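Hi, here's the filled form for the chain we discussed.

Project: internal
Contact: R.S.
Residues: 143
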Amino acid sequence: MKKPDFILKGRKVFGGNARGEALVTSELITWNGGIYYGSGEVVERNHEIIGKVVKDRILIFDGSNGSTAYARRHADTVRYGNGPKGVILISSFRHDPPAAIAVIAAGIPSIDEVEDNPLKYIKTGDQIKLDADKGIVEIYKIK
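And the returned structure, exactly as it came back:
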């Protein structure tokens, strides 16, 4: 694989490695009713990524919208094989316990507190290599 176009560093939330296509949103995600666990499709009305599927993607988002039921639905999505391969939270899981519980319970490689805003560097469709153990994100831009 070629050298990454950008490398960002963040804080490990749940360890592991993941590679995949980025799915990026600057909006909060309501997993309980906003993403259909049976397919991983975003079904939340008026959401900027409605109709997109989180399955097998590296999800970059700004946090969850809702209660701890979010974590249960997120786990259901993963259990059905429709969850993301990895998660990069734009802000901090410290301020979003339901999202933190969700990624930890589901065992999804995840980081937060990225040194610079990932939205400056990552667009939907870019290829991402996430090493959550080291807190490193390699970004391979699509041309």
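Let me know if anything looks off before we file it.
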